[in-house]
């Protein structure tokens, strides 16, 4: 692909959870040849870049977020050659490919950890975080140095390693030992890993828990918090340490050697200021960082306006925003926002918001169908977090990882075998094949929005000004910075499930709408919006 340094500012990203997208060999788990076979669908949908969750060699204790070899593909997903073919075909269709770099921790089966845990004298030992075992409690268990918690095992994050008489840190499961980023060999190795994949043609990375790389040097205990989802701790010391920004800037240098590669950080937690800080004050940090605050907003125009405003205000000068509503760790937004009779209508309002706000949108596979996901039966649970917290529904992540729904054949056309998770109920009608035939479907609406976004550069790059403060109506104008007409698009989104009056500030013609035909003229002044109406207007 030709060198285009800012492609990611215009791009629409599409996250693929590879286990669940398309299975080519009947083992019930999706794979790289499966993704490759569906590239024409993604090109026709109109997305610009894929982020594929990890497919590196892994014992799959956290389904690939536990890596045992950063330079190879797990046989479950295919081979390095399959990866090359996938990237080549994607590029041929004008689609870029981002991988997922899990650099905070490795698998306990990674040869680095196997060596590190063998002896305190081994040169690899210092790649991980250790604490000598001192006291033991009356049951003989080592007393940990602080109160840090394993998020997926819901116990102390310190695990015993008998060979060295030490504890190692595992913030997720015990199978994901944490690397010591204060050891300069660790960041240097990850810069090399980036270079390896850039050489293969990969266009960038999503960095897993990028703000967790550094822990407090003194291992201080976290203070108490009332938030159950944070396990009743304010995570001051086990993540989000300021030293991380220097490390992110170093990774950025490795990306900049190529000119057009992009790094997107996952911030751990819901703090726009933290996500903003990952960009660096002078653009020396990540290209983008996720602000997850948007994923936790209730269905309300006011709530999203406030959240977007806060995000824009938090970002340093020159930093580029991004927005997302769903990913592989959170209940899908169509389910979060569902309401009898309005579920798909709300999915369309959400899509219009995501694809027209100022900032790169990140879609999650299947959201273009209005996929809801489903809570599996206990015997079908796969996620370690879901198993540890069953029957609580707030934590487990299987519901958002159900197979992509391609057609109405067995298992939604995802596999010819037994799918690793059952597809959500309703897949016989909610699937690509059925929705492609229906001009009113959620899928048809996404396609129309994506096509419009491509044809109207102001929807990607233009400035944004909110109009009004109505609690139900989210209204903003996107204005092109360039070109003779300085094209203007007014976005009007009615979040309410009832009619609402609206005073249109200036007339125009409909570009796209859920209730009005493209090309129809609307005059300035009072108008009535239908429940959950989306209206995109080219302003005169
Ligand atoms: C991130 C990933 C999540 C994974 C965890 C540990 O939060 O998104 O899926 O379990 O990191 O790598």
Descriptive account of the structure:
The protein has 540 residues and is an alpha/beta fold. The protein has three domains: 7-107 and 181-449, TIM Barrel (Alpha-Beta Barrel); 111-169, Oligo-1,6-glucosidase, Domain 2 (Oligo-1,6-glucosidase, domain 2, Alpha-Beta Complex); 462-539, Immunoglobulin-like, CATH 2.60.40.1180. It is built from 15 helices and 23 strands. It has helices spanning 7-10, 32-37, 39-45, 80-92, 111-116, 185-200, 244-256, 272-277, 301-314, 333-336, 343-356, 384-389, 432-437, 442-455, 457-461; strands spanning 13-16, 49-52, 56-57, 69-73, 96-101, 130-132, 149-150, 155-156, 158-161, 166-169, 204-207, 262-265, 288-289, 322-324, 360-364, 463-466, 473-479, 488-494, 500-504, 508-513, 521-522, 525-529, 534-539. An eight-stranded parallel beta sheet has the order 13-12-11-5-2-1-15-14. A six-stranded antiparallel beta sheet has the order 16-17-18-23-20-21. Helix 11 runs parallel beside helix 14. The chain binds alpha-D-glucopyranose (GLC). The site of alpha-D-glucopyranose has 9 residues, from loops. The site of alpha-D-glucopyranose (GLC) has 9 residues, from loops.
How is this structure best summarized?
The chain is α/β, with parallel strands linked by helices. The chain folds into three domains: 7-107 and 181-449, Alpha-Beta Barrel (TIM Barrel), CATH 3.20.20; 111-169, Alpha-Beta Complex (Oligo-1,6-glucosidase, domain 2); 462-539, Sandwich (Immunoglobulin-like), CATH 2.60.40. Helices cover 25% and strands 18% of the residues.
């Amino acid at each position: 692909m030709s060198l285009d340094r800012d492609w990611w500012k215009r791009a629409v990203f599409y996250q693929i959870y590879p286990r669940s997208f398309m299975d080519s060999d009947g083992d019930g788990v999706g794979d790289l040849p499966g993704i490759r076979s569906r590239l024409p669908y993604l090109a026709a949908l109109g997305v610009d870049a894929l982020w594929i969750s990890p497919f590196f060699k892994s014992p799959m204790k956290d389904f690939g977020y536990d890596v045992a070899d950063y330079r190879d593909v797990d046989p479950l997903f295919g081979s390095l050659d399959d990866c090359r073919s996938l990237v080549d075909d994607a590029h041929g269709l004008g689609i870029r490919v981002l991988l997922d770099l899990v650099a905070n921790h490795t698998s306990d089966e990674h040869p680095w950890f196997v060596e590190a845990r063998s002896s305190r004298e081994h040169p690899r030992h210092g790649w991980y975080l250790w604490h000598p075992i001192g006291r033991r409690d009356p049951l003989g268990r080592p007393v940990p140095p602080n109160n840090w918690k394993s998020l997926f095992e819901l116990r102390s994050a310190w695990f015993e390693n008998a060979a060295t008489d030490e504890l190692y840190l595992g913030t997720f499961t015990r199978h994901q030992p944490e690397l010591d980023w204060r050891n300069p060999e660790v960041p240097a190795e990850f810069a090399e890993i980036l270079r390896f994949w850039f050489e293969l043609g990969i266009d960038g990375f999503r960095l897993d828990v990028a703000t967790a790389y550094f822990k407090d040097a003194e291992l201080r205990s976290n203070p108490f918090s009332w938030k159950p989802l944070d396990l009743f701790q304010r995570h001051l010391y086990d993540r989000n340490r300021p030293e991380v920004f220097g490390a992110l800037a170093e990774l950025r240098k490795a990306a900049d050697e190529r000119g057009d590669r992009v790094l997107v950080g996952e911030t751990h937690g819901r703090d726009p200021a933290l996500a903003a800080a990952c960009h660096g004050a002078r653009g020396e940090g990540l290209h983008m960082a996720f602000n997850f605050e948007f994923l936790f907003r209730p269905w309300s125009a006011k709530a999203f306006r406030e959240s977007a405003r806060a995000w824009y205000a938090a970002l340093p000068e020159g930093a580029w925003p991004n927005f997302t509503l769903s990913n592989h760790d959170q209940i899908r937004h169509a389910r979060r926002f569902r309401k009898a009779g309005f579920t798909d209508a709300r999915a369309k309002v959400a899509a219009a918001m995501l694809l027209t706000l100022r900032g790169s949108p990140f879609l999650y596979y299947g959201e273009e169908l209005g996929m809801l996901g489903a809570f599996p039966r206990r015997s079908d649970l796969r996620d370690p977090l879901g198993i540890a917290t069953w029957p609580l529904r707030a934590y487990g992540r299987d519901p958002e990882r159900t197979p992509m729904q391609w057609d109405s054949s067995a298992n939604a056309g995802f596999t010819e075998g037994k799918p690793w998770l059952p597809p959500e109920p309703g897949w016989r009608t909610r699937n690509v094949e059925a929705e492609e035939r229906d001009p009113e479907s959620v899928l048809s609406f996404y396609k129309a929005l994506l096509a419009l976004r491509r044809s109207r550069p102001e929807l990607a790059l233009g400035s944004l000004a909110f109009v009004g403060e109505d609690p139900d109506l989210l209204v903003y104008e996107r204005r092109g910075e360039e070109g003779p007409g300085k094209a203007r698009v007014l976005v009007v989104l009615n979040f309410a499930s009832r009619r609402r009056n609206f005073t249109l500030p200036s007339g125009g013609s409909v570009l796209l709408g859920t209730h009005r035909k493209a090309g129809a003229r609307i005059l300035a002044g009072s108008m009535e919006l239908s429940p959950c109406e989306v209206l995109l207007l080219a302003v005169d």
